[in-house]
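Hi there. Long-time user, first ticket. I'm pasting a complex I've been working with (about 1062 residues overall). I'd like to know whether the download I got is complete or cut off, because the file seemed smaller than I expected. Thanks.
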Amino acid sequence: MTKERLYLFDTTLRDGAQTNGINFSVEDKIVISKILDELGVDYVEGGYPGANPTDDRFFEKKRTEKATFTAFGMTKRAGRSVANDPGVQGLINSSADAICYVAKSWDYHVKVALGCTNEENLEGIADSVKAAIAAGKEAMVDCEHFFDGYKANRDYALSCAKTAYEAGARWVVLCDTNGGTLPHEVYEIVKDVTSVVPGNNLGIHAHNDTEQAVANSLAAVRGGVRQIQGTLNGIGERCGNANMISLIPTLKLKPEFSDHLEIGVSDEQLSRLTSVSRNFDELLNQAPNRHLPYVGQSAFATKAGIHASAILKDPATYEHVAPEAIGNRRRVLVSDQAGLSNLLDELARMGIKADKKDPRVASLLGVIKEREATGYAYEGAGASLELLARRHLGEVPEYFKVESFRVGVERRFNARGEIVTMSEAVVKIEIDGEVRMSVAEGQGPVNALDIALRKDLGKLQDKIKNLELVDYKVRILNGGTSAITRVLIESRDGQGNRWFTVGVSENIVDASFQALVDSVTYKLLKNGATV
Amino acid sequence: MTKERLYLFDTTLRDGAQTNGINFSVEDKIVISKILDELGVDYVEGGYPGANPTDDRFFEKKRTEKATFTAFGMTKRAGRSVANDPGVQGLINSSADAICYVAKSWDYHVKVALGCTNEENLEGIADSVKAAIAAGKEAMVDCEHFFDGYKANRDYALSCAKTAYEAGARWVVLCDTNGGTLPHEVYEIVKDVTSVVPGNNLGIHAHNDTEQAVANSLAAVRGGVRQIQGTLNGIGERCGNANMISLIPTLKLKPEFSDHLEIGVSDEQLSRLTSVSRNFDELLNQAPNRHLPYVGQSAFATKAGIHASAILKDPATYEHVAPEAIGNRRRVLVSDQAGLSNLLDELARMGIKADKKDPRVASLLGVIKEREATGYAYEGAGASLELLARRHLGEVPEYFKVESFRVGVERRFNARGEIVTMSEAVVKIEIDGEVRMSVAEGQGPVNALDIALRKDLGKLQDKIKNLELVDYKVRILNGGTSAITRVLIESRDGQGNRWFTVGVSENIVDASFQALVDSVTYKLLKNGATV
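Hi, the file is complete. Here it is re-exported in full:
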């Protein structure tokens, strides 16, 4: 059966750039457009040339190889010709392959925001579309507030869509600008619009204000549209746009869609989706949300003991799709609630071969549970778990021994009468029978300890080169400053490796130091240090 | 028109406890059940008594006042009677008002995971339900894998639902255990199930694996179910459960649902939803996601641009619901007016009368914004905000002046060869022109500082009697140990008062000390201490 083509239109660089807290540089935009191009989306909307210097520079040249490079902007204003509208001329003279015009389709906004007549607005749509086509570009029209506009004045909303289509727009995109439309409404309204514009010329642009941007997009596809707009990881104004990263696997892997629709993303490209999502977060300098559908670190993780043993018998019946398809992996978590089979699975992943009848495995599980009862949390600290497991099974060398440490924090007036807070740490370790003492100042006690600990490991020093702390999290487990403190530390090296360690103590400094020691030890182990 | 009742079933403490990275203590569960009870949900599923010590302790007594306190567990095993099934007996003997049994409804899992016959499974459902009812408890059955089971063997899935209903279960809950079912499938399958079990006895339990848990839940309601299961902020195994925080406003505010359905959450309770969501994140010690639908800090924020001026003309046409309804607020970055009226509200709440024309109020707003830009978060630290405000308006005496402090943490071998970690703090303050030095040991640096600071306030000592630290939270704002640290401290006295203070510094000890000083100062102010 020949499948119908469904087009993906990415607006990460345009609507995504409206996200509160995100500011793309030109260089960011160049990197992201490459990521999108390689992912196989059909359109990359790069921004709004004329609106700001970043977008002007970005549109100086074409930034995609395969995807249609698209510029966003407004239709011509009332009372002037296209030739005299600097906004439209800016779009036409840009390096874009396609122009996506935003046009009002709610009569109320035509009056209040544009201050022109309904007819002038239609004329603006038609003339702008024709100008883009005359300039050799593909034209499309984002019908702003389409669904609210349709509810307020169905005829006018439809006439905006129809005008764009009849003027030659390749796509008429129905935008749920305020994000409050519900999926069944989207479905019914799209159905109605197809009586005026064929589905193969309709697109959907959904926002997540009721947490249903993905559902709204898919409802529109079921209603007939053949273009979906969305963004990487669902970034975008307010609550974000439809999440392309969730849409793609559903469209590729769910027979409801994949049986009759085809998108431009191949199986191979799909298998890179997890890293696309995480690399994008890296680029934004934000921690990936591990609960993201399909690509999150926990998306195929099971903690429940009652499920875990059955999962190992037949994963397919516990997973709605195979994690490998999107480059993710199954994880069975070792925790308070889990059993022996979880642990064996986790050990196998660490490359530790263990027999389930080996009594040391059962006793390791006992140790983990005991430690978790005192506050350790190993599911978020894989490196500490691996060290614990390898030590229990007798494999980790004692690279160094901490004899003692001390750290002091002092706040006082300095010689110039300013209040200053100083932190200084001293760490005394023994390596190869030799005692080494290091001292360091830091911005806080943990920073000082971290620097002092890594300052002089003697012959092992080159094995921890580039080790760096990325994140540091503290959780107080029972409340109050004298309660148990759990510290989670994320570290990385220069080779793209990241690992997590944990420390627990009544004393926050002590807990931090444990996690620091685990981090350094893990790095030494991975780098094959020998004693 | 009489509206039909739709019931909210919260499983934050059961399915939410399966979240990777979340480990609730008994104390956490007690606080959360109170939050849920006050929010107006109908059922609070507290956990799985018998599965772990935390849940055993939590179910020792009833933890809700209004909501039905519900225990989760498995139906009886094949080959034994209910009376001889310790799992079922544990549920029956718990303090729960209701029991939610999980039962297989996919024949494949009956065979593979349970290893019994289809008939034995049905018998287990019926007997378990009857036993709960005989014990005076409300019974319900979670049909695990219902949708996948229905697709594989419709008749068997339906007979599980029917058996539960006919045995007397108040609710038969259709679970999308693997989370891969799509909204229109949910709708159609629910429709079919209503031919066997009335909609008023059906529930939906959806997961977010395709980012459609909310849409699936609402599709099920449209199909006829009258109970929705979900969790606070959508936590839960893998990608999470249906997000109760998104469902509630949609059900309350969208005419499609609110015209004919009624939930147990009042308008007043709805207006506290934003703070419920944020307080829950605080409790989990995680940064609230500012893009959350309805309650996120950015949910009603618009970056100044093409929308900005129109929004000021008529906000309603740019917002799908009014932010005030859920206790959130509009953020239009072109105007400070909203900020000022918020601050006046806040001051009034503290009992501070201020005129909006008083230039000190505007400058206070500026100071707050500046401090928030450096990392302070006054939303969660009312006592620190009140001190800042009263100081700015010139009202807080300087009860004491901190000259200096120092704290040392040392880990070493003691005389008996044991490793010990010691913390000692020295605080030097001036009261009434007299310098006082105090020294104290503590379980960690902050505990030592806290004790030393409160040890000798001279004539003010009796004013801080019973002051106690309840909770201490640390958040690293930029990642890494040398980043900005924010400390939130919760304090209480013997009279049932609780207050929150904040400190921010590059140095965790310094930040903690700021929050401690604010806590003591606030207490002195409230107790009417005079200099």
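A couple of notes from our side: Residues 333-338 of chain B have pLDDT under 50 and may be disordered. Chain B touches chain A through 120 residues (CB under 8 Å).
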